[in-house]
What we know:
single chain, 441 residues, mainly alpha, 56% helix, globular
Amino acid sequence: LLISPDSRSTMADPVKVNALISRIFAVSLDAAALPPVVYLEGLREVVNYSGLLLNPDMAAMFPQSEEALRRGPCQLVDHLSCSSSSSAEPLPAGFLEQFVARFDNDGLEALLNPVLSELAKSAYNVSPLGPFHGALNALCQLSGIPATAKLILDHPEWMPEVKNGREMELRSLLGPLMKVNCLPDWHGTGQPSVNECFTNLQTRRQADVYASYQSIRMNLGQLTTGLHQLLNSLLKKGGRREPVLQWWAKVINLNGGRAKMQIQTIQHEIASHGFFCNLSAVMLKFCGPFLDPTSGRMERICPTYVQDDSGGRLDLKEVTKVAASLDEASAWVDKRNASRIADLQASAALIERQELERAGVAPGTVALSTASSSKPKEDYHFICECYFLTARCMHLGYIKIILELKECDKGLRELHRHQQELERVRSMYVNGPQAGQFERQ
Length: 441
């Protein structure tokens, strides 16, 4: 069963090569059928030959169909995102890890970058009732491997050069998955349409309608849980938090227009309600561990973050200041008005020193995270960054969606009132000589 790379007789017969690869793949699906040494050796050979078949520069070594040659590395997408209803076989246990280890620093980027792009595209224009689970599970699996997590963060589509929030939603690697939702959008909510679950409401059983609600809620819950797992793996396995924080900040800053009273005229420039609903849910999951008042972690939140032009990531210049005019807010954060800033910094430094003393750490052994207004972004604690990014995201996401929903409800009530008034006036004229004229009007 094992193939030797030096076996020229086998290499000379492409049909035998393909047959042997198929046999190894089939047997390796059941690891218990082989001794561990034989299984691992067979898996290693499968990985080697898979790399040759998927590499566009080497694919011509073996005869393949035109479709296989055209798709190249994207053939992995079928096996990474396969489901129970799919005809594609799932990858053998341990295949992906060995594949990444084998081709790391040896063309892994060329092999997996197209796969990442294809996975993102597969979730485009998909509703919560559609097949988004395959792409999400595949990205979660890839983000759990350090080498591929770094690959995701370095991918050209992770943070593309875009002009507005709508382009970021459509073109970024996570944009299509973040958009999966049932909230209305001028681009549509994807297929299959969730509206199909709520047709003929007058004749349907209430239990069926409730089951539709439950199905959508369950799928959206799985989506946000998966997105949180994906981003959490990137933060831990990617080796650096900066790209994830930059992605959050860029998405939020590009969609500052969502805070406006009337957004109908700029819908083509801002991300959808569904995108920000999912993003808000994911950000709240990250805040969960430190929002408990008894955890002591909230002391990591530095209040000067919002007025730090050089260190803060958020563009808050146009954000309405509570109980202060723009001039008053500008005077408060003026660099010449350093006393108030210094008082806040001293207070934050005292809190951190007390925290270090409680932990039994000498004050001079650890650098305090509270710094001056000229501190670089990465000096802020992750909890501090996550808190303020989530707060801004909530204003653009959940809060804005609720306000829009209230306005929609108000409009429906107004229409219903007009309808009742019309019916009342109609009843006055229906049997009179002016009934025909009234109906025409």
